[in-house]
Amino acid sequence: MYYEHFGLKEAPFKITPNTEVFFTGGNRGAVLDAISYAVLNGEGIVKVVGEVGSGKTMLCRMLQTMLPDRVESIYLANPSVAPEDVLHAIAFELQLKLPKAADRLKVMQALQAHLLKRHAAGKQVVIFIEEAQGMPLATLEEIRLLSNLETNYDKLLQIVLFGQPELDENLNEINIRQLRERITHSFHLAPLQSKEIGEYILFRLRAAGYFGPHLFTPSAIKKLSNAAQGLVRRVNILADKSLLAAFAENVYQVTPKHVQAAISDSEFGLERSKVTQRNNKILMIAVILALGLVLGYLASTWYRNYAEDSIKPVATVNKPMVNDKKTPAKVEPEVNSAPVPIMDAEKVTTASRPVVGVPEDILSRRLSATSTWLTSQPTTTVSIQLMGGSEGPQLKSDLEVLSQKIEVDNIYVYRTQVNGLPFLNVLYGSFADRLEATEALSKLPAEVRKNRPQLRTIAGVLQETKKLP
To answer: CATH 3.40.50.300 occupies which residues in the chain?
Structure first.
């Protein structure tokens, strides 16, 4: 929309990883070279950790394009692969022909034979695993066993783990320490600094055909940097919306006002604003409570001193007691001046809010159907995992689209957990063995296959669901 206005040939800030516009700043280029060196020299398992949107997927794509032809790479993007299925998933990516109902031992033997053939031909095999923080620990341990495949001099399989910071927490578990000991190189994608973000924005604008002065003022870059928190994906989103805001005003430079409009229109901007408001509210309540305690203490101290000065014992004399008609001053009982705790109005509102019934939708129907389906299938039944995600409008929308491409009655959805958080997996079909499932997978629409579906067994699915609290 705004391309001609700013003299651009194409969209400068697409969030889809494009290896043609890889930014080497922010230490990204150095990390890429180091990972490439580690892979080519057979340095065991490599780990790359970074926050969501820091550029891990871009780094992975760059590795696949820059490694020499003698390196054969495979890519696993599904984090919820069960331990008994991960070997089959790798064999599928390598296009190995396995006998029907091949067990774990036969799959491992086939993998080793294939890797030995590739090694004898001077080839190298590397597996890139994305979202590794979401993999069950048992699956990570199964992958660790693959690193044992080696000759007297070389590893037959190189493994690169990409994950969020939770991956480090998972690897600190005592029952996964053997995998941790096999990691020879660890890399961290740090957030971009404000100066690097300015360079990144100009780099992307130049790549899109812009050759004038910087479109973003220094103050706009600073404001955008604070909101993006150094994450590349957020920078792309905010920069794109900022240009659109400037275009709407028919101006040719982005100012903090346009960046603020972009922040207000972004989900993470709203989320950060809500967090700030909540923190301010908590701080205000804490200040009120502290002030109440101080005032209560001072009032209590003053009243106690006043009472002690007003009521003093009368000295007695050795003479008959005379009746004094004066009525002594009445002393009020001491009042507890501690402040009454202030309840969080938001919690009160939430607790008293009535629960409104939600009409059944495609997600509810398929969850219900899957519950019956899982209990009626043999554990050897094979299904195709198409996608997964957190429960919400996006997943329901994806299911609606999916139901228009394949038979809705063959779509199954079950609940699991990824990194301790609720997660929904979407399966397709019931097949007697992996060969039948592979044939069915090849006939799926191209739009469905582009998500790189994985084969799953009912045994593996049931094992996942049993771990739910």
So the answer is: 27-189
Give 10-residue mean pLDDT values along the chain (469 residues): 85 90 92 90 86 92 90 84 85 85 86 90 90 87 83 85 91 84 90 95 92 92 94 94 93 94 78 51 71 72 59 47 46 44 39 42 89 89 86 84 90 83 88 86 86 83 77
User: 4-15+192-265: what fold?
Assistant: Helicase, Ruva Protein; domain 3 (1.10.8)
Q: How many CB atoms lie within 10 A of CB 255?
A: 17
Facing residues of 155 across strands? 150
As a whole number of angstroms, the distance between CA 323 and CA 227 comes to 81
Q: Rounded to two decimals, what is the model's pTM? A: 0.62
Q: 27-189: what fold? A: Rossmann fold (3.40.50)
DSSP string, 127-151: EEESSGGGS-HHHHHHHHHHTT-B-
The string over 74-106, giving b where at least 16 C-beta atoms fall within 10 Å of a residue's C-beta and e elsewhere, is: bebebbbbbbbbbbbbbbbebeeebeeebeeee
